[in-house]
Structures are given as C-alpha cells and as structure tokens.
C-alpha cells in the first residue's frame, strides 16, 4: 500500500485518483530508498512504474519543505522530447493537489518562450540535455540550489551522445544534491564514467534487467523474402490480429514514411513518428494515438523510446531491432502495466543472425509463425551454428600466398594498410553492427537524436 510510505496526504490523494492500488515492484524498492535521501542507482525499465517511483519521493521533498526563495529545486533529464512531455503529464497528475509546478525544457519550442517560463521559477524542470545546456549557457536558469537531479533512461541518453552534456549539467548543479539515476542497463563499460562522476556512494537497486522483462508478452517471428513480402505480411497480420493499437518499428525514417503511406493507402488510420517531423507534428501524432484517432503508429526507435501509450496490444518490428536492448524497448510498448501483449518481428535472410543474437542475449526463443497463404521462399538458414546463427554457405577460399602476383613496394605498403584495416573490422554486417559481445549501437547526434 502507498499509505505505508511517509508520503504527504496530497500525494496519496493523487495516487488514489490515478487508481494505483498497489505500488509496483520497482516502486516498492525505489520509493523508500529515494525517500532516505541517498543517491540511487537503479536498473528499471519503462512500463515498470519507474516514473512515479522517482516522482513521488521528489514531490514529497518539495511538499515537506517549502523553499520560496530557492532557484530550481529538482531537475529531471530525459533523452527525448516525447518522454519529457510524458513525464510532465505524470508529474501534473501526481502534483495535482499540491502547488508544485514544473517547466518543460526541450528542443522544438521557442527559446524565448522557455526563458519566460523559467523566469516564473518552477520548482521542477523536466528537460532534454541539449536544450537545457543552452539555457544554462544563456543564464536562464540557475542550478546552484538544486536539491535533486534525476537522470531517467540514462543509458539511452548516453547512447544518443549526451554523456558530455549530462556531465556538464551535473557539474553546474549544487554538489549537496541527491541524484537518482535510472537506466534499463547499468553496464559499467557503458555507464561507469557518468556513474562515478554524478553519483555519490549510491544505493544500488538491480530491479529488472532488460533481459528478464516482459514475460507477459508473446514474441513471434515471421520469415520474409523482401520488403514487398514484409508489406503483405504486415497487412495480413493486422487483419488476423485485429489489434486495438499497434506500434510498427522501422529502422529508418524513410522506411517509416513508406510503411505509413502504405497503411494509409489501404485505409488504416496510421501516423508516423520520427525525428524529421516538427515538434508540433510529433505532438499531434502522439495526441491522436493516445486519444484513439490513430490505430497505428509507425516509428523509429529514438522517437518512440519509452512512450507510454495505453492499449497497445501489438508491436510489429518491420525491421529487426539492431540490438537486444533496443528490441526490449520496442517490445515494451505493449504489455504495459502487466497487460498481455504480442510482438512480431519480420525477419529476412539478412536479419537472421541479428535475430539469433537477440534471442541469445535475452535468453528466449521466439515462436516461429507462418502466415497462411503468404509463406515465402525463405525458410531460414540451412545450417545453424550452436549460437543459432546461420552457417555461411560457400566458404570463401583463403588466397594462396604462393600464387600471389609480385607487387611493387609502394603498392605492397598500401595493401598492407588496407589489410590491417580489414582485420580490425568485424567480418559480417551483423557483427559490424553488434561489435563483440553485442554492444549497443553508438548513435551520432545527427541520427534521430535531438536537443
Ligand atoms: P512507467 O514505467 O513509469 O512508464 O509507467 C507505466 C505505466 O504504469 C503508466 O501508465 C503508469 O501510469 C502506470 N502505473 C505506474 N504505477 C502504477 C501502479 N502502482 N499501479 C498501476 N499502474 C501504475
């Protein structure tokens, strides 16, 4: 019961109004730890109730102690604009019976307008790192009094290239603050530097790793010959499943646009969400999707990350996700708050090994599904390695060094250089994408990231 925690009655009233009866597992662990005032490092996924898990202790601090002359008291950093808006909505619900106000600072909104908002001195600022840093540089906000810093979806922020921004922002914050860092993964290799720099002697809560998520979501694969085949499969699967709401994932913006147009052409209420759209367009699409004006959202990973859309009972990966964690994020758009969901990945021959890596990483086996009448020619690899990956047919012969033509000295050096370069690069496109040990993709800020 939420009443067990020493939360202010106004917060309990809001929790009640939201219809939350029991704290989720993540909330049971995070709320008391955060209320203790210590720094916190928690591995928690979206869909676990993690937002309220940090918002309630944050609000409790603001409500319990008035600080009318203080600058910004709490800062929540998130990787994407949509997530920031989502957290603001959750904040408004939970703070509904208090006077605590939050300001939203993300890219895609006029700087001057935000500066005026910040002049009103909201206790809490919810922001994406790039734009917040611009405001810090322009002196539109002061973090010297900051009591609480929350880094939500921290691994994603780092993947998107925000590590330096996050550390610069943390440096500008009061050093006596409490810091909470929430992340789907807490890999020391990926996160070590930021964790060491930003947190002080944190309580560590390993709640639910990315790998053991989503037991209530059925995961299937359908083999596909090519894009055209995938398009037919997608439409047929929608007919068979008759889902209320669907999220279709594409690896590229152009791909998302194409699938969106195809679905609209066939009469579906489909919207597209990716980083090329203006913020107004993105807001409109999300609003339509939430209110039921759209049935299908076709999205790229970054744009749809962490989005909480009620009633999504089907996720379709038109392209296979490029890493295990990315796959978990996608699949987590369905089966939210314990509901059941279905995730179907369309797998072409080129994506088989990637799919096998995801299976291995998550230690699950995707159920193989045939779509009657649309069976393709591709039936999976003829031979499999122990890892589940395809054995490449027609092994390339190593060139016989004795048969090599003699080359001039200068050219030899050039060849040697090329050879050294080759050895360092992984052999297959899949390995290139995954690196060794299934490392996440490093995104450049120019990809689908945003300020
Ligand atoms: P989050 O992981 O924070 O994105 O939350 C996922 C969903 O679970 C949101 O729609 C929340 O409103 C909902 N939620 C959070 N806490 C609870 C709770 N204790 N009981 C029921 N639903 C919850």
Structure description:
With 451 residues, the protein is of the alpha/beta class. It folds into 2 domains: 2-206, P-loop containing nucleotide triphosphate hydrolases (Rossmann fold), CATH 3.40.50.300; 217-368, P-loop containing nucleotide triphosphate hydrolases (Rossmann fold), CATH 3.40.50. Helices cover 40% and strands 14% of the residues. The protein has 17 helices and 14 strands. The protein has helices at residues 9-17, 25-35, 50-64, 81-94, 111-119, 129-137, 154-159, 163-172, 188-198, 227-241, 253-265, 279-291, 301-304, 324-331, 352-362, 409-424, 429-434, and strands at 40-43, 74-77, 102-105, 124-127, 148-151, 178-183, 203-206, 217-223, 245-249, 270-273, 296-299, 312-317, 341-347, 367-368. A 7-stranded parallel beta sheet has the order 3-4-2-5-6-1-7. A 7-stranded parallel beta sheet has the order 10-11-9-12-13-8-14, with helices on both faces. Strand 10 (270-273), helix 12 (279-291) and strand 11 form a beta-alpha-beta unit. Helix 6 (129-137) crosses helix 8 (163-172). The model is unreliable at 407-449 (pLDDT under 50).
Gross morphology:
globular
- Rg over CA atoms, rounded to whole Å, is 24 Å
Would you count the extended β strands for me?
Answer: 14
> Can you tell me the CATH architecture of the largest domain?
3-Layer(aba) Sandwich
Q: What is the helix fraction of residues, given as a range?
A: 25-40%
The CATH class label of the largest domain is Alpha Beta
**Bound molecule kinds, no repeats:** adenosine monophosphate
The overall average pLDDT, rounded, is 84
Q: Return the CATH topology of the largest domain.
A: Rossmann fold
- Give the termini separation: 39 Å
């Amino acid at each position: 019961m939420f009443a067990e925690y020493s939360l202010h009655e106004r917060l309990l009233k809001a929790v009640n109004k939201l219809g939350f009866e029991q704290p989720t597992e993540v909330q049971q662990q995070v709320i008391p730890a955060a209320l203790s005032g210590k720094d916190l490092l928690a591995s928690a996924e979206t869909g676990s109730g993690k937002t309220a898990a940090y918002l309630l202790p944050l609000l409790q601090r603001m409500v319990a102690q008035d600080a009318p002359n203080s600058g910004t008291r709490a800062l929540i950093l998130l990787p994407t604009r949509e997530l920031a808006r989502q957290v603001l909505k959750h904040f408004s619900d939970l703070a509904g019976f208090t006077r605590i106000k939050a300001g939203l600072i993300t890219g895609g909104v006029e700087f001057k307008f935000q500066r005026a908002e910040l002049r009103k001195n909201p206790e809490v600022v919810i922001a994406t790192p790039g734009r917040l840093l611009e405001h810090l540089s322009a002196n539109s906000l002061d973090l010297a009094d900051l009591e609480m810093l929350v880094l939500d979806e921290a691994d994603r922020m780092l993947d998107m290239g925000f590590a330096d921004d996050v550390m610069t922002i943390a440096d500008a914050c009061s050093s006596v603050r409490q810091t909470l860092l929430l992340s789907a993964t807490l890999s020391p290799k990926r996160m070590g530097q930021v964790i060491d720099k930003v947190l002080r002697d944190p309580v560590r809560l390993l709640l639910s790793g990315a790998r053991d998520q989503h037991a209530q979501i059925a995961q299937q694969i359908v083999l596909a010959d090519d894009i055209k085949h995938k398009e037919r499969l997608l439409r047929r699967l929608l007919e068979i499943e008759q889902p209320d709401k669907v999220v279709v994932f594409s690896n590229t913006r152009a791909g998302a646009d194409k699938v969106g147009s195809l679905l609209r052409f066939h009469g579906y209420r489909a919207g597209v969400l990716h980083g090329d759209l203006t913020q107004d367009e993105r807001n409109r699409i999300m609003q339509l999707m939430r209110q039921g004006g759209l049935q299908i959202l076709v999205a790229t990973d970054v744009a749809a990350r962490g989005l909480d859309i009620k009633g999504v009972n089907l996720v379709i990966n038109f392209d296979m996700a490029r890493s295990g964690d990315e796959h978990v994020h996608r699949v987590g758009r369905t089966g939210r708050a314990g509901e059941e969901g279905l995730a179907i990945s369309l797998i072409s021959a080129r994506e088989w090994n990637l799919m096998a890596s995801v299976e291995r990483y998550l230690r699950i086996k995707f159920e193989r599904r045939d779509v009657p009448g649309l069976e393709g020619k591709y039936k999976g690899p003829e031979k499999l390695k122990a890892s589940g990956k395809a054995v490449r047919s027609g092994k390339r012969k190593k060139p016989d060094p004795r048969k090599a033509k003699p080359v001039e000295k200068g050219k030899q050096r050039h060849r040697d250089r090329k050879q050294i370069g080759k050895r360092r690069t992984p052999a297959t496109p899949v390995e290139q994408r995954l690196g060794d040990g299934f490392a996440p993709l490093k995104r450049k800020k120019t990809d689908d990231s945003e300020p």
